[in-house]
Amino acid sequence: MTKRTPIIAGNWKMHNTLAESAALIEALKTAGNKNNAEVIVAPSFTSLAKVAELAKGSHIQVSCQDVHWEDKGAFTSAVSPVQAKDAGATHAILGHSERRSVFGDTDEILNKKVAAALRHGLTIIFCVGETLQEREANETIAVINSQLENGLKGYTAEDLKGMVIAYEPVWAIGTGKTATPEQAQEVHAAIRQFLADKYGKEYAEATRILYGGSVKDSNVDEIMAQPDVDGALVGGQALLADKFARIINFN
Ligand code: PEP
User: Fold this and answer.
1) Is position 96 annotated as part of the catalytic site?
2) Residues 6+ apart with CB under 8 A from 201
């Protein structure tokens, strides 16, 4: 682990009714936080306001899982950054691989969503990651650099201050396959190098880079032990209070 404050974030995806969301946040509020991590949960939009209300005054912050790039308008089913913020979100996950592959979020679209989040002071959790095919073709770093380059195009270090990066290899998300700690470290170090080249060493050293992809109570400790891993973005096990509590309280 590093000197940077760790972040443990849970992405609830399209899970949980209001009652289930309320029960989960209540359980997490009393789950301890021995590493003084920043703990973030990302409920679906229907539960966001409720979870934010219940989390108020606790150590848990609330993120949305996406935002539209416009503040308002005729965009049926979409949620704007203004609405997400109004509902209590402090963070916005952008570029999750499911958004990229299922909903067609391209680098260009993400670039506009980055602007939207920045306009409204939402802290961005920007996700990048390669497919298995890209990894096997030795394209991992090139793919990630291109996602960072194009998704963040036009913004300065000052604009992106506080942004969090999540490295999530697509082949490890929801599959039970986790990158080895060494694989995670290699990519995290490359991301930090990208940030140093682009925004300066100070920016790179301050930026938290999370690993995501089948993080579990049983593997979080070895992943968090890597010098460039500053936290975890968790899917499946973020829905289980006892498992997520163990992840928050990693050793
Ligand atoms: C995710 O959705 O961001 C994720 C990492 O999911 P899981 O932990 O289930 O692989």
Assistant:
1) yes
2) none
The CA distances from residue 157 to 70, 80, 202, 206, 207, in Å, are 23, 24, 10, 11, 11
Residue 66 Cα distances to 90, 140, 161, 200, angstroms:
12, 24, 19, 28
Euclidean distance between CA atoms 154 and 131, whole angstroms = 26
The rounded distance, in Å, linking the Cα atoms of 53 and 43 is: 12
Whether residue 241 contacts residue 248, with contact meaning beta carbons closer than 8 Å, is answered with: no
pLDDT tens for 158-194 read 999 999 999 999 999 988 888 999 999 999 999 999 9
Beta strands in 74-133 (DSSP E): 91-94, 123-128
Q: Where are the domains of the chain?
A: 7-248
For the entire predicted model, the pTM comes to 0.97
Of 68, 96, 120, 188, which one is the catalytic site residue? Answer: 96
For the stretch 199-233, pLDDT in tens is 999 999 999 999 999 999 999 999 999 999 999 99
Ligand 1 pocket mutation pick from 210, 214, 218, 219 by most atoms within 8 angstroms of CB: 214
- Nearest atom (ligand 1) to Cα of 172: 10
CATH architecture observed for domain 7-248: Alpha-Beta Barrel (3.20)
User: pLDDT band at 96, cuts 50/70/90?
Assistant: very high
